Fold this sequence. Notes:
This protein has 343 residues and is an alpha/beta fold. It is built from ten helices and 16 strands.
Amino acid sequence: xxxxxxxxxxxxxxxxxxxxxxxxxxxxxxxxxxxxxxxxxxxxxxxxxxxxxxxxxxxxxxxxxxxxxxxxxxxxxxxxxxxxxxxxxxxxxxxxxxxxxxxxxxxxxxxxxxxxxxxxxxxxxxxxxxxxxxxxxxxxxxxxxxxxxxxxxxxxxxxxxxxxxxxxxxxxxxxxxxxxxxxxxxxxxxxxxxxxxxxxxxxxxxxxxxxxxxxxxxxxxxxxxxxxxxxxxxxxxxxxxxxxxxxxxxxxxxxxxxxxxxxxxxxxxxxxxxxxxxxxxxxxxxxxxxxxxxxxxxxxxxxxxxxxxxxxxxxxxxxxxxxxxxxxxxxxxxxxxxxxxxx
Length: 343
């Protein structure tokens, strides 16, 4: 019996994106769904900073190709024997697992417990822009920072998003407004300031300048929550200075050097990490929470309470376009999300 193959984009060597072999077109075996896995026909994918971090130059050489891509929207083609949440034909969206092959391929295997039903009101491209950033923002705000979903509970409470114009920041701003928080976003260019305000931010400050004087001009001495989405090392002292007593800071960006936690002691302030792959990576008991939150997010999208942050679309999904996408991401100038589609 002949083995079916599929097209994919991947790598054997970890190279600068300017190298033609940094991402290459491949023909690989098409996988089969078993257990709780779904086989999804990929209709659209989005690129994220995690893609460029995984692909970043290093000495390792892969014996079999490494496929990236952790934002997918598509159609379920097969279900494993233990699947109970989906059936063939369902339209889905998800971010997948960092410990498995990514979704930059014609078909992709994913555990159903981290998959949601695609919002009905948006196309595959708009849906593919959502999962990774929305899961990160949702977990960061509700699970890590402990923000209540009831707007009444958040009356007069403030949140500062550092790097508010990026993919996570754009969704985090919308979710924070939905929760009734006063939202302050950092942005340093006129176009990013405009974008952050379009997402619902009440105020903006410049992350290249000292935070406290800018907040004081807006009438704030401290903020109750800080969600750091850019360069934890660079902003650490600014965060420690401006967090409220008994406030909480959450970051998604790893530190290059140790940071001084002692700066938070007198305020009894908390610091916590958010990594949206944790539940899938460790198959935690509450892994299915990502299925639930993606379904809840779809309802918010369909009721026009949350909007996709798609800003650019490319087609088709092949190595040349993905290299261009990675290059745009690495420029540090991306606003919102870039999506590639298979027509």
